[in-house]
Amino acid sequence: LEQQQATKFRNVFLVLHVYEQAQIFIELTKKQRARVYRYLTPEELGATFNAIEEEPERVISYFDEMTPNYAAAVITQMYTDNAVDILAFAEKKNLANYLRLMPREKSDEIKEMLHYEDKTAGSIMATELVKIVGNQTARSGLHVLKKEAKEAETIYYAYVIDDDEKLIGVVTLRQLLISDDDALIRDIMNDQVKSVKVDEDQEDVAKTIRDYNFLAIPVTDYDNKLIGIITVDDIIDVIDEESAEDYSGLAGVDIEDSPDDPFKAAKKRLPWLVTLLFLGMSTATLISHYEQLVSEASILAVFISSITGTAGNAGTQSLAVAVRKLAYKDDDTKTIMRTIFTEAITGLVIGLVTGLTIFVIVGLWKNNFILGLVIGLAMMCAIIVANLAGSLIPIVMDKLGFDPAVASGPFISTLSDLTSVLIYFNIAGLFLSFITGTGN
Amino acid sequence: LEQQQATKFRNVFLVLHVYEQAQIFIELTKKQRARVYRYLTPEELGATFNAIEEEPERVISYFDEMTPNYAAAVITQMYTDNAVDILAFAEKKNLANYLRLMPREKSDEIKEMLHYEDKTAGSIMATELVKIVGNQTARSGLHVLKKEAKEAETIYYAYVIDDDEKLIGVVTLRQLLISDDDALIRDIMNDQVKSVKVDEDQEDVAKTIRDYNFLAIPVTDYDNKLIGIITVDDIIDVIDEESAEDYSGLAGVDIEDSPDDPFKAAKKRLPWLVTLLFLGMSTATLISHYEQLVSEASILAVFISSITGTAGNAGTQSLAVAVRKLAYKDDDTKTIMRTIFTEAITGLVIGLVTGLTIFVIVGLWKNNFILGLVIGLAMMCAIIVANLAGSLIPIVMDKLGFDPAVASGPFISTLSDLTSVLIYFNIAGLFLSFITGTGN
User: Fold this and answer.
1) A282 in contact with B at a CB cutoff of 8 Å?
2) Does B332 share its domain with B270?
3) Which of B11, B85, B320, B417 is the most buried if burial means most Cβ atoms within 10 Å?
């Protein structure tokens, strides 16, 4: 595709959408990339780099391949939010180098944003936005938009500020177009402008943009000064990321980044599995405690997995519902109390129905209704406990400031194994003479 | 808030964002709603209704409260895609009535869209879009956009069509603004326009919009005729919906719609639990088969839950990874074979490490390394099988045309319980004399 044929490559490459350019770029060999750095200007490659969605470490290694001057120029051309995401992983020495080689204004913006905490509005915002003032006319507002059209991340919203850079309104490009040319911005702007604070959780920002169907939302600091903008495409990434996290939590594996190399994949999954195995050993220890009971009535062993399995499933359902409810941030005390109450009653109903079902099945199958009663009762109690744990654990984790999605599915099932076995053998112990009398 | 005080209500209500209007509207009593229907024009209420995200059945009931003429006028004001989502749930008689009372053009569009299959591009597209032709100037293109600004779902993209209504290009409002006024559309347009077919899966549409960071994408029929547009806010709903479905599948419960009434919640969750309970009974039957073995070596019962639990967790991890990989639609045979191969080797590695761990633990704990060997071997085999099942089942389901996310977590764990127990007792049977000889 490209053997010293710079113009030919440029003709083919530059008509592509930046996403496609990025897809091609990441497939290149080191030698091919070296050529690309010679064939393309930093402006052109900066646009491509905006669309690369690889791990930051890998993008950093591309920068290391370039001359520092070229790298700094490429970074300068990138949107600040994208550049910061990557530079957060650069070596201190290289970072200082790049910052020194780029225009002062850009390096100041990057330095400031490197201080925003991960997963806050500040860390995903761009600083390239369109500001106008209230006593401009629509015509002059449109003029500003045209001028900024190449730089700004979106020109479909222009934010109106007062003399102190404070956010006082918003006009859409649509409004500017349909307004009278001489209308004053302050008269056509929407002064009910929604904004987010710089340290707000990115998940809350996503919720606002989604609910209001915005294309972008302005970011302000604590003086209500306008400092950035978050666009809907950043938010789609956030939604993806958060839903992948929830899903990963429930499965006990990081699905976002599952390597194709089986040894690496195993290395990522083993910590969870081995932790749960050790946790599961406490269940084994507990059963071991009741070994005497099992040897007297081996029939009891038959139903261990039915009880732990069903309680585990019920607990996972309850956990998933609680995690979802918490994600929607209705976390006032009243809602929480109602969630717990609902789950408790739900657990009771489910436990009753499931317990009765297994009572009838076991009773008929083994022709032993006392055994059926033991299994049914144990299953009912185990389900009620698992349901309560499934809703309580994420709520407690949320209160303690952890992500409730981490109280993951495998953890709940393993924990509910333990309580289920405890409940089961204690109930079985009470009825032992009846079971062995007729059963075994 | 509103006792015959129409103007006061209008003053307060109409300055709010439509999302906030919708939030207020759905909290009103029937009596209050009746007043709103008198106070607001159909145009105003139509805008509010675009932002209502309740169940369609409930929105239909609002229409039933209005006079048919008013209802038809409100529906006419709504975006076609939103209106269709709701009208799909209207009674035949009422639907015919509404369609008769609205302008011919709108009712034709709605009728056509009611035929598109659920979850395809056709079912989520809007028909309000801006079309221009290639030999217009930028000035006249801008003029068209201004004229359509009130009607169209987005004016930030204008699609260029030829004489046969076929899609040949796209210009963004940004491009129109920065171009020379007299430049021809055909010269400034991007002719590499991405579009989707009307029957394409909404998930694929979402992927395209997300990857390319589009604000909207055009929809064409099989003659490449331009028939609709899908905007990024529709796509956010799709992404939410699909991720909620995946999550629900893994948990075995519909998290999107978990009622606050515990009896209704129980009713929704019980079918899954009882199905799995019956499936779990086959595990119990299997163990029952080996009851003789257990009564001879009750120590075996101690480790049932460790083995089934760990294999279940490993299977769930493997399932989650496979479902995710399938969602990204790399479903050529080569990728599938590689996924299965990776999971098999991963299972082998995980099985080896976990098996060795439990071998050492059990060996030391029970001072019986033969028992340790049995447990370790059983765990290794059970994990390998669970891992393979976890990746194979969603792939097979996908091939058969089912949503792989339905091959849910609880199903995999219950299935892996069965195979794990089978493997466990068969291995244990081989070593029985050694176990009872030193162990129990």
Assistant:
1) no
2) yes
3) B417
Asked if B390 and B314 count as a contact pair (C-beta separation under 8 A), the reply is yes
Task: Name the domain count of chain A.
Answer: 3
The per-residue pLDDT for range B219-241, each reduced to its tens digit, is 998 888 998 999 998 898 888 88
Q: Give the separation between CA A187 and CA A75, rounded to whole angstroms.
A: 39
Tell me the pLDDT tens digit for each residue of A92-148.
Answer: 888 888 888 888 888 888 888 887 877 889 888 888 889 999 899 999 998 888 888
Q: How far apart are CA B66 and CA B71, in angstroms?
A: 6
- 3-class SS string, chain A: CCCCCHHHHHHHHCCCCHHHHHHHHCCCCHHHHHHHHHHCCHHHHHHHHHCCCCCHHHHHHHHHHCCHHHHHHHHHHCCHHHHHHHHCCCCHHHHHHHHHHCCHHHHHHHHHHCCCCCCEHHHHCECCCCEEECCCEHHHHHHHHHHHCCCCCCCCEEEEECCCCEEEEEEEHHHHHHCCCCCEHHHHCECCCCCEECCCEHHHHHHHHHHHCCCEEEEECCCCEEEEEEEHHHHHHHHHHHHHHHHHHHHCCCHHHCCCCHHHHHHHHHHHHHHHHHHHHHHHHHHHHCHHHHHHCCHHHHCHHHHHHHHHHHHHHHHHHHHHHHHCCCCCHHHHHHHHHHHHHHHHHHHHHHHHHHHHHHHHHCCCHHHHHHHHHHHHHHHHHHHHHHHHHHHHHHHCCCCHHHCCHHHHHHHHHHHHHHHHHHHHHHCHHHHHHHCC
**A124 and B CB contact within 8 Å:** no
Q: How far apart are CA B322 and CA B330, in angstroms?
A: 11
Interface residue A367 vs chain B (CB under 8 A)? no
Structure tokens of B370? 């033969």
Tokens matching residue B395: 């792939």
Q: Find, among A365, A234, A209, A388, the residue nearest to A315 by Cα.
A: A388
Asked if the Cβ–Cβ distance from B309 to A174 is below 8 Å, we say no
The answer to whether residues B261 and B222 belong to one domain is no
A window 227-266, beta carbon within 8 A of B: 232-233, 235-237, 239-240, 243-244, 246-248, 250-253, 255, 258, 260-263, 265-266
In terms of domains, do B307 and B211 share one?
no
By CA distance, what is B151's nearest residue in A?
Answer: A174
Cβ-Cβ pairs closer than 8 A, A with B, add up to: 328
SS3 readout for B289-348: HCHHHHHHCCHHHHCHHHHHHHHHHHHHHHHHHHHHHHHCCCCCHHHHHHHHHHHHHHHH
pLDDT at A3: 61
Residues B94 and B174 in one domain: no
Contacts of A233 in chain B (CB under 8 A): 210, 213, 232
Exposure pattern of A401-411 as b/e (b: 16+ CB <10 Å)?
eebbbebbbbb
Chain B contact present for A212, CB below 8 A: yes
Which one of B189, B214, B239 terminates a domain?
B239
Residue A244 lies in a domain: no
Q: Using a CB-CB distance cutoff of 8 angstroms, which residues of chain A are in contact with residue B210?
A: 233, 236-237, 240
What is the side-by-side order of every strand in the sheet holding A157-161?
Answer: A131-133, A157-161, A167-172
Whether B189 and chain A come into contact, CB under 8 Å, resolves to no
Q: Say whether both A305 and A162 belong to one domain.
A: no
Query: How does residue B194 score in pLDDT terms, banded at 50, 70 and 90?
Result: very high
ipTM of the complex: 0.73
Domain that holds residue A400: 255-438
* Spatial contact of A89 and A60, defined as CB atoms under 8 Å apart: yes
CA distance A192 to chain B (A): 8
Identify the residue whose tokens are 């639609």.
B329
